[in-house]
Amino acid sequence: MKKRxxxxxxxxxxxALSSVFVSxxxxxxxxxxxxxxxxxxxxxxxxxxxxxxxxxLERVKAxxxxxxxxxxxxxxxxxGDDAGEAMRLFAESGEFDVIWAHxxxxxxxxxxxxxxxxxxxxxxxxxxxxxxxxxxxxxKRIHEASYVLGVMAGKxxxxxxxxxxxxxxxxxxxxxxxxxxxxxxxVNENIVQKVAFIESWYDPGKxxxxxxxxxxxxxxxxxxxxxxFKPCEEAEILCFANFGDQHSYSPETIVSSALAFWDPDVNxxxxxxxxxxxxxxxxxGNTDIIWRGMADGGAGIAPYQALADKVPDDVxxxxxxxxxxxxxxxxxxxxxxxxxxxx
Amino acid sequence: MSELFQEAILVxxxxxxxxxxxxILFAAIGELxxxxxxxxxxxxxxxxxxxxxxxxxxxxxxxxIWLAVLASMVVGGLVGLLxxxxxxxxxxxxxxxxxxxxxxxxxxxxxxxxxxIKGRAQPTFDGFENVPIPVLSSIPWLGEILFSQRLLTYVxxxxxxxxxxxxxxxxxxxxxxxxxxxxxxxxxxxxxxxGRQYIAVLIGSxxxxxxxxxxxxxxxxxxxxxxxxxxxxxxxxxxxxxxWLPRGVLAAVLVFALLESIATHVQVLGLNVxxxxxxxxxxxxxILLLMGLRRKSSQPLRLxxxxxx
Lengths: 343, 309
Hints:
Distance between the termini of chain B: 59 Å
Helix content of chain A: 40-55%
Shape of chain A: elongated
Largest sheet of chain B: 2 strands, antiparallel
Largest sheet of chain A: 6 strands, parallel
Structural class of chain A: alpha/beta
Radius of gyration of chain B: 20 Å
Oligomer: heterodimer
Strand content of chain B: under 5%
Order of helices and strands of chain B: HHHHEHEHHHHHHH
Distance between the termini of chain A: 92 Å
Largest interface: A-B, 39 and 40 residues
CATH class of the largest domain in chain A: Alpha Beta
Radius of gyration of chain A: 25 Å
């Protein structure tokens, strides 16, 4: 009796296990193989902000996350209603799984997200509203990398005056500038800071004037977030850039750049989408900002390249040590988003 | 506030003023000729943008900034031809023509730019350097402010008396000003109104294209969409604020540039003054001037009104 009961239990278990295996095999066969992303750009593919996103997508694509074949299509810079209309066209086409709106677009997403619940919407950076649900909010802070550049600048300056030319005084711009000066002051308490905003995402004329004015007030190193390095070349001083490695634009002046890597953000979004598609997990977009720093692979600094000789070995060692401390968590760079001013 | 009056800062403010003036002065003094001929060209922003874009393409493709300067002038002239065809030949409303040209150029330049750069590795170029004038550049203060500028800056300042001479000391200039006041008088004399309007628009547009070219070649090493950032509109405001007179236009551009330069330095020096006030001042000053000059306005009577025989 006992033997018969054992056999029946074993048989039932085998049947159950095999059915689970078969259903699992069926689910695997039904798993998505493609991920199609529509991207709304804000500044243009050649800008460091947008260009670094495409760089990251290409790196992630090569890794084939979840075995997915990733494809994307991006727009020219679009804002406001135009961006909203483009998002609607992408959504209605039925061809896109993710709509990645690479700046402040939550107003536009708000009008679409409930109408297209299967699409995962992404908005990026400051000025957005955390809507949750199928809207995810990616935030990028490169303040740690800026802090490291500040350490370098604090050691390299001879006049003890550092200049920063910013775009708009926004939350995720101010954090870079404040961290740069914090880094400089951590190694040089006599630092005088000069700050100017061009009040535009791009205006080379204004950026040139701001940089020239800072140089005339004694700044001998400029951290330019406005991507015009001509005044640095004319004054023969060193510059830092941000978001992308811009060394090639001014090989004689740009020592390094604070870099943004979107790879962990892209992987996060893909995982969230995958969970919904494969495991049926509902979208649960964040309503508060989430950012990934140097320890998570979300930020870094560019190599010195042709200007390696301009940075003494002890400064290089200090920079490496600072990066290691930040990555290990023993050094926490405060996020300071107060509007920076000159002193 | 006293920091603004330190010697080095003052020199920096004034040298910056001269730099900022250059592209706007080219456009404003050129468009003054166009407006004195009765054509209200609202497409200055677009013409300037086309000049800047063309300068970028030619500079990066050939490596020659002088070829780029020439190309920006030629393309400015071509945009001017379109403007003249629409306003003088087709007699389309001047404002609609100008706004249409601005939109057309904004779209075309963006489209061509994307085709040209083919990806993210945007080519750059070496633009104009400062050209200190021997002896004069050694003069304390003035040397750095006036005589250590880009070569085209000197050309822009030389263009002001040249245009004044053309408008006020030549028969052709008299006829051109007559176009803006009473084109019928010329027509009755058997002189071509349309032909003269074409030439006036061409002069303005070539100089505006040159202003755009300078903006590109003198201030930056790469192009981005809408690089002119409203400077074309500022040129139009300068003509109005300058009461359609060469010296007035020069003064208006000087004041606008000075305000921008002060705004820049106010920020850099960390003075407790909202710098945006200085950026808004040119427009505020123009409105006030327009109100004040209503009785003494030198605005051409037939400005913006298509001429029908």
